[in-house]
Amino acid sequence: MKRRCSRSEIAMGERNFPLRAAVLLLAVGLFGCDHATKIAAHASLSQGRTVPLIDGIVELRYAANDDTAFSLLRTLGVARGAASTGALVALASLAFAGVVVAWIATRKRASIAHHAGFGLVVAGALGNLVDRIARGYVVDFIHVSRWPVFNVADVAVVAGVVLVGLASMGTRPPREAPS
What we know:
Layout: H1 7-45, E1 50-54, E2 58-65, H2 72-75, H3 82-106, H4 112-135, E3 138-144, H5 152-169
Helix pairs in contact: 1-4, 3-4, 4-5
């Protein structure tokens, strides 16, 4: 027996296309921004030049990162080089696939904040993954005092994770009253 859609379900379906298009534009735009800034950083900072933005706090400094965020491979004692880069690309690909699967699994019940957060994570993960595949390392260039050097993709991933986390906190199902 064929079920009829309610008006709210039809309206929700109609609203999903612009939302999906907006998330796709967000992801593509951030991916492009990430790579444009990495190209600019390589061109102007790779010779050892630094550019102070806020004296003593924020500067632009080129770093070719062949490790993970926060030097996790070195901390775990994993040798760096071609084998670890291959393992890193494989792990990044698995993580990226996990994010995409989570996004697809929650898509129908996800809020706009969830969609935006997933879009940010996908854009950032893809930006660094493409960098690692193309160059063998990730170009980092933003240095904040007492913090590792990072890039636009890293900001997108962290912002996306925070946004998804905050959105998830606000959408928990109500607890049933004890009987």
